[in-house]
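#lab-general

N.A. 3:47 PM
ok so I finally got the sequence cleaned up, no stray characters, all 106 residues accounted for. can someone with queue access submit it? mine expired

B.Y. 3:52 PM
send it over

N.A. 3:53 PM
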Amino acid sequence: MGVMRGALTMPAPRKYPLELRERVVRMYRTAEPKPVIRRMAEELGVHHEALRGWIRQAEAHDRLPGAAAAMVDEPHPPARTARATFTAGGSPVIFVFRQPSAWMSV
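B.Y. 4:20 PM
back already:
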C-alpha cells in the first residue's frame, strides 16, 4: 500500500535497492549447484522469502514473449489525476478525474 499524501498516494519505499536484487538473482542463476535459498539469503542479509520472490519474478519475466516483457518494465499511467482550483474565498476545491478503463477504448 502507498502512503497517503493528500488526495494522491505514493508507493512505499523499497527495503532493498534494485541493484542488490539484480546482483543477488544473477549470483543465484550462475551458481552451480544451485544454493539453498534460505542459506544464501542469510549470508547476504536479505529475507529468504524476498530472495525467493525475486528469483521467481525474474524467471517469470524471462518466460514472457518480447512485447509482454517490455510492457512489464513500463510504468503504469496513474489511475486518477487530481486538479485543484480555488474559490473566491480562497478555499480549495479538488476535482479527481478517473482514467477510462482499457476495455472502454476498444
